[in-house]
Amino acid sequence: MSGKTTTIQDPENMSTDPRPFAFDFSYWSHDEFKENSDGYLEPTGSKYADQTKVFDDLGRGVLDNAWKGYNCSLFAYGQTGSGKSYSMVGYGSNKGIVPIFCDELFKAVEEKRANAGADEEYQVTLGMLEIYNEQVRDLLNPKTINQKGGLKVRQDPKKGFYVEQLTSCSVNNYKEIDNKINDGTRNRTVASTSMNATSSRAHTIVAITFTQKTPNETGQSMTRTAIVNLVDLAGSERADSTGATGDRLKEGSAINQSLSSLGNVIKALADQSTGKKKVVVPYRDSVLTKLLQNALGGNSKTIMIAALSPADINYEETLSTLRFADRAKAIKTTATVNESPTDRLIRELREENARLMDMLKQGGLSPEQAAALIAGGGGGGGNSSNSEIEEMKKQLEEQVRKNQEEMENMKKTWKERAAESQVANSANMEEDNKRLANRKVVPHLWNLNEDPALTAMVVHFVNEGTSKLGNKKASPPADITLSGLSILPAHAVVTSKNGNISIKPLEKAKILVNGQRIIKDTPLHHNDRLLFGANNMYVFHHPQDEAKNLKEGKKTETPTFDSAHEEIAQKAGLMNTEGKSAEDMILQEEVVQMLQLVNEANAMSEELDKKVKFEVALISPQARGIKDGRTVVMVKMASQVNSNEWMWDKNKAINRKSLMQQIYQDFVSGEDNWDVPKEQDPFWEPADQEILVGTAHLHLMSLAHALDIEETLAITDYKGTEMGHMCVYAKPCTKDYQDLAEDDFVDEPNDQIGKNFYFILKIDNCRGLPQNIAKSRCKYKYYTDDKFTETNEMESMNPNFNFEKKYKQTPVTEQYITYLNNGSIVIEVWGRQKSDSQEGATSKGAAKPAAKQNANNTAQKKTDTKTSANDNKSKPAPAPAAAPAAAPVVKQDPKMAVELDNYKKRTNEAEGKLGSIQNQLAAKRKTGQTTITIDELEAMLGGGNGSKAGGGNVDNNRNENLGENTSKACVIQ
Fold first, then answer.
1. Region 561-565 average pLDDT
2. How many Å apart are CA 8 and CA 1, to the nearest integer?
3. Where exactly are the structural domains of the chain?
4. What is the mean pLDDT of residues 1-6?
5. Dihedral angle computed from the Cα positions of residues 97, 103, 109 and 112, in that order, rounded to the nearest 10 degrees
6. Which stretches make up the Kinesin motor domain (predicted)?
7. Cα–Cα distance measured from residue 826 to residue 401, given in angstroms and rounded to the nearest whole number
8. How many angstroms separate the most distant Cα atoms in the chain?
9. CB burial class (10 A; 0-12, 13-18, 19+) of residue 356?
10. Residue 629 is labelled as binding a ligand
C-alpha cells in the first residue's frame, strides 16, 4: 500500500505484473506497531494506521454530515478474519469507528445543550439489529431474538424499507448508548450460541437517529434529522474456497446469497452511474439490500471499508474484495439535508393518518386501492389476491401506529423524553454497575467466543450454596440458564462452600473441564476452561484464587477461544504442542476447526435422531498412497444402524454442517419442514457411493533383480487397520512375455540400464473385505502414469479380479531402476457398501467386520509385532561388515537374500494371522461359544495383526474426552 493505491501480486505467478487499485484511502495495519501500557496499538513506523487515524479520516466525516442533517452510512466488507469488526467496533482499548462516533457525538451534544435556547433540542435514538439466515432479529429486545421467522421488513413510499416493531431506544449520553450496544452484543452472543453460529455469519446494523430541533432565522421551529447506519457485514467467502461446488449445497446461512445480492445491486448502480439505461436495481433480492437501499443508491452519504487479508493463501478472495470495492467506487448517491418545519411535519402526519384511517374504516380495500398500495410499495400492479389485500391492511395499521408515535414524539420536549428513557435506562445502568462490582469479588463463569468482540459478554455468577445449571425447559427454572446444543434441562450442579467451588454433571450431560470429560463432582480453579454440551465454552474466574496466585507470584495466562479448543484436541491425542513447524500450525488450526464441527454435528445428529456419528480423521500421506506430503484432516461419518462409513473432506464437512444447522434450527423453531427427504438430508449418504476401503503397497525391489513377486498384501485403511488381503503377482518376462530362464537373475540392478525390461502384473483376488462391502474394484498408478489403471468391479466380499496387465520399459534408465529399488505400487481398493435392505435385520446387531475385530484384539494384546509386508523398503540382507578374525568371510548370494526377505515378510504375516485367529478363538471360548461359521473362518483367514502402515499411531478405543469424536490416525508432531 502506497498513498491511495493498493497493489496486489499473485504469489503463485510472480512473473505477472502487480494489479493496482486506487481508493480515497489505503491503510496498512499489519505491522509497524507496538502495544502501550493500556493495550492501545500505536504506530512505530510511517505505514501503520491506528484506530484514531481511521476515525479521523472516515468517522469524523460521517459525524460532520450527521450534524448537517444528511443520512450517512458506513459499512465494512471483506473476508472472515480480515478485520471488519475491528475497524467498526474495535477491541479493548482500540475502539473502532462505532464507539468513537458515539462518544464524539455526545460530547458535541452536551456542549450544544449547555448553551441551548428554550426551543432547541438534540435527541439521539438507537436501534440495533442482526440479519441471520435472511431473518431480522432485534438485538435490543431479547424476546424477539428467537421469534419464528424474525421481524417483518415493510416498505413505506416515502421512507423506503424499514423493520416493523424494531426497538428504538432514547439515549442521553455516551454511557447509556455504550450500555445499549453492549446489551445488543450480549443478546447477539446468546443468539449465536443458541443458533450454533458465529458472529461472522451474520450482518449487524447499528442505526443511530440524530434529531435537532432549532429555530430558523424567522423563529420558526425546524426539525433536522440524520439517520446513521453503521453496518458490519458477514464475512465473504468464495464458493470454490469453501467447497460449495460439487456438493448439493443451498447456502445454509444465506450469507453468500445476501452478499451476492449486494454485489448485484452495486453492479447495477455502477452501470446506472455510467449512463446505462433500463437498469433494474434488485434491492428486493435480499433483506440486506432492502435495508441498505438508501445507503447504496438513495438519500445518503456512504463510505465503504474493504478489509483485506495479507495472507497469500487468500489471494483470490482479496482480489475479489478489491474488485468489489472498485466497482462500488463508481456509485453516485444523491444526499439531501433532511430538514422541514416541525409544525408542517406534524400536520402532514396527521393528514396521512386521517386518510389511512378512512381507508380502514371503509371495511376493506378496493382492488384498485390495493394495487396502488402494492405499486407504491415497490411491487407489481394489476390484479390483487385476497392475501395481498390483507397484507396491505396490516401495513396500513402499522403505518398508522408509527405515524401516531412519531407525532407524539415531535410534540414532546426533549426533557419529557429524557425523563421517560431515564426510568428504563437507570435500571439497566444499575444492573450493569452491580455486575461489574460483583465480577471483582464473586466467582463466576464468562463466555469464550470465536469472535473476540463477543467474548466475556455473558457472565454467570456462582453464589454461595448450590446452583442448578440447565436450559430454559428446566422446571423449576435453573439458577444458571444456558442455551445451545446438548444442554439438558438439568445439566449440572455447581456447589460453592467457603470459597471452594465444584461442578457435577447430571444424567448424561456432557461437560469438559480443561479438555477432559468429567463424570463426577470436580473442583474448579481459577481460569479453568469448561465446555458445556457442544458449543458453550466458558472460563471460570475465581477472584480470591487470582489474588492468592498474584501474591505468590503465579500469573496464569488468560485463556482464549483458540487455546481452549487446542487443549481439547491435545487431550484427544490429536496434536502434540512441542516443536511445531509452520505446516503443523496449519494442520493444528484445521484439527481445532474440525473438532468443533464434529462436536456440533454429533449433538445435532443425536437430538434429531439421525443415527450417524462423526469423527475427526487424520489421513497421513502414506495412507493416501503418496510418499511425501502433508497430513489431511477429514471427517468420518459412521452409520449406527449398520457398519457403513463415509469420508468427507474438510470443505464438504463445512458445507454439510451449514445444512445441518438449517434443519436443526427449523426443528427447534417448530417448523414442519425440518424432516426433509433423504436425498436432501445432510446427514445421509447413498450406500452405493464408492468409498476407499484401503490401500496395499507392492514393493518392487525384486523386479530390479528380475525376480518374481508373489505376495499376499495387507489392505489397510487410513488408521492402519487391516481391512482384508490381496493376492498380487509381478513376473519379469521375455520380449514375448514368456517365462525367464532360472539363470536370468540380475545380480546388480544397474546392469539392466540401457536394456529392455518386460513384466506382467496380476491382481488375482481380495479376501476378507469388510462384510458391508457389496462390490469392489482396485486401481493404481504405475511409475509415470497420469491416470489410474482399474480392474473390473466385482461383487462379493472375496472378489476374484483375475486382472492382468503387461508392461515394458525400453530402454531401462537409471531413474527407472531407482523407482524399482525404492518405490512401490500403491493399489487402492474401492468399494460400494450394502444398503440397509441388503444387510437385513442382522446388520443392526452385527459385530464389527472380522478384520476390525482382529485389529482390536491385537491392540488389546499390545503386541509389538509388525507386518513386514508394509515395511517401507524390502532390501537384500547386507553382507556382514566385518567378521571375527578367526572366522571365514562368507559372501551372501543376493538372489537368496531377496528371496529370504520375501520369506521373512510372509512368515511375519502368517504369525500375525495365527496370533489374530488365536485371539478370536480365545475370545469365543470366554463367551462360551464352541462353534464358528464359515464366514467367520474366512474372515479370520483374511485378518491380520493390525498393520500400522501409513497410518501412524492407532488407537481403536474411543476417546472418552470427546464422546467418540475422534479417530486417531496420526498425531501432529
1. 89
2. 9
3. 51-337, 340-363+393-440, 441-572, 582-680, 690-833
4. 85
5. -110
6. 1-331
7. 74
8. 126
9. middle
10. no
Per-residue pLDDT tens over the stretch 17-46? 888 899 889 998 888 888 888 888 888 888
Determine the topology of domain 441-572 in CATH: Tumour Suppressor Smad4 (2.60.200)
853 known member of a binding site: no
Say if CB 300 and CB 294 are below 8 A apart: yes
When pLDDT is cut at 50, 70 and 90, the band that residue 326 belongs to is confident
Task: Find the mean pLDDT for residues 785-802.
Answer: 92
Q: Which one-letter DSSP state was computed for residue 739?
A: B
In whole angstroms, what separates CA 849 from the centre of its chain?
A: 33
On whether 622 is known to bind a ligand per the annotation, the reply is no
In what helix (H) or strand (E) does residue 664 lie, and over which residues does it extend?
Answer: helix 650-668
Alpha-carbon distances of 136 from 232, 308, 454, 499, rounded to whole Å: 14, 27, 19, 43
Q: Assess contact for 191 and 137: CB atoms under 8 A.
A: yes
Phi-psi region of 638 (alpha: psi -120 to 50; beta: other; left: phi over 0): beta
**Measuring CA to CA, how many Å separate 370 from each of 152, 358, 386?**
19, 14, 10
Q: Is the dihedral of CA 433, 182, 461, 542 positive or negative?
A: negative
User: Do residues 722 and 947 make contact, with C-beta atoms less than 8 angstroms apart?
Assistant: yes
pLDDT of residue 450: 83
Q: Is 81 annotated as belonging to a binding site?
A: yes
What's the confidence (pLDDT) of residue 892? 47
List the Cα angle 255/257/263 in 5-degree steps: 105
C-alpha to C-alpha distance for 740 and 743, rounded to whole angstroms = 8
Task: Write down the CATH number for the domain with range 51-337.
Answer: 3.40.850.10
What are the backbone angles phi and psi of residue 780, rounded to the nearest 5°? -160, 165
- Could you give the strand order of the β-sheet that contains 966-967, starting from the edge strand earlier in sequence? 645-649, 632-639, 612-619, 966-967
- Is 80 exceeded by the pLDDT of residue 749? yes
pLDDT tens figures, 92-149: 888 999 999 999 999 999 998 888 777 788 889 999 999 887 888 899 988 877 777 7
Q: Which residues of 28-54 are buried (b: 16+ CB within 10 A; e: fewer)?
A: bbeeebeeeeeebbebeeeebbbbeeb
Cβ-in-10-Å burial (0-12, 13-18, 19+) of 971 comes to middle
Output the pLDDT for position 933: 65
Same CATH fold, 690-833 and 441-572?
A: no
pTM for this entry: 0.69
Three-state SS sequence of 55-86? HHHHHHHHHHHHHHCCCEEEEEEEECCCCHHH
pLDDT band at 514 (very low <50, low <70, confident <90, very high): very high
Q: Which residue is listed with cell 426539525? A: 223
Residue 506 DSSP class: -
| Domain 690-833, CATH class in plain words | mainly beta
Please list the residues that pair with 803 across neighbouring strands: 763
Q: Which residue has the cell 502414469?
A: 785
pLDDT, tens digit (0-9, with 9 covering 90-100), for 869-914? 334 333 343 433 333 334 344 444 555 555 565 556 556 656 655 6
- The angle at the Cα of 389, spanning 385 to 395, to the nearest 5 degrees, equals 145
Q: Which amino acid is at 866?
A: K
866 assigned to a ligand binding site: no
CB 647 within 8 A of CB 692: yes
The answer to whether the CB of 686 falls within 8 A of the CB of 646 is: no
Residue type, 19: R
The answer on whether 83 is annotated among ligand-binding residues is yes
Torsion angles phi and psi, residue 172, rounded to 5: -110, -15
Instruction: Tell whether residue 364 is among the known ligand binding residues.
Output: no
Please list, in sequence order, all residues whose beta carbon lies within 8 angstroms of the beta carbon of residue 375, skipping any fewer than 6 positions away. Answer: 381
| SS3 per-residue string spanning 271-326 | HHHCCCCCCCCCHHHCHHHHHCHHHHHCCCEEEEEEECCCCHHHHHHHHHHHHHHH
Neighbours of 312 (CB within 10 A): 11
Q: What is the DSSP letter of 844?
A: G
Q: Is 470 annotated as a binding residue?
A: no
> What span, in angstroms and rounded, lies between the C-alpha atoms of 90 and 51?
8
What is the average pLDDT value for the chain, to the nearest integer? 79
